[in-house]
Amino acid sequence: MPKHGKKYRKSVEGVDLASLFTVEEAVQKSLAASYAKFDETVDVALNLGVDPKYSDQMVRGAVSLPHGLGKTVRVAVFCKGDKQAEAKAAGADIVGAEDLVDSIKAGNLDFDAAVATPDVMALVGQVGRQLGPRGLMPNAKTGTVTFDVAKAVEELKAGKVDFKVDKAGVLHAPLGKVSFGAEKIQDNLKALLDAVQRLKPSAAKGTYMTKMAVSTTMGPGFKVDPTLIRKFMEN
After folding, report:
1. Angle at Cα 138 formed by Cα 100 and Cα 167, nearest 5°?
2. Secondary structure of 47-106 in HEC code, one letter for each residue
3. Model pTM?
4. What's the rounded Cα separation, in Å, for the pair 35 and 33?
5. Does residue 10 carry a pLDDT above 80?
6. Transmembrane residues, as ranges (predicted)?
7. Which pLDDT score, from 0 to 100, does residue 14 have?
């Protein structure tokens, strides 16, 4: 059993962390239990009734959250020619091709998301080992391999979130900052759940969203009654 500090213990006083809550209650309790001096990120963990070892049950996508993430997203774009000016005009922080690949090989990964045009993906593949483990590899399924680099950059800057179910069938995603308040966090969560629902694999049988918990960076997780997730999405 991990040891928790005084602030954590105080934040969960009188709270039964084994209880199941409505989505709205879980969000509100998570915000109330936040105690860090910085503006914590609110996260959701969603267990899906899929087996990701089968390719037809992999759930991966992206969603533009209506209220963004409340943070500055540094975007790198791999492209050539006129696309470089287009990317810069859209607000890209780093733009390049061979030079950007060389910079990454040298250990420079000062960005939070990456976009690439399809014609340079062979180049990007050279730094796949550096980008992949950090979740920075451009991917067509999340809209980050595209010739429309301006749209991709603008969406990422506005708070587009990539999500992917892990080997255990759990999907983790950020929902914004504690300072957003419950209403905006719930709006962002609803947008995420809608996107995940649309990607439900036809091979997935039984209950799709089996468990859910909401937490802040430093705070405890509040579990949601899975039978109430659908009701929240429909409100």
Report:
1. 130
2. EECCCCCCHHHCCEEEEECCCCCCCCCCEEEECCCHHHHHHHHCCCCEEECHHHHHHHHC
3. 0.78
4. 6
5. no
6. none
7. 58
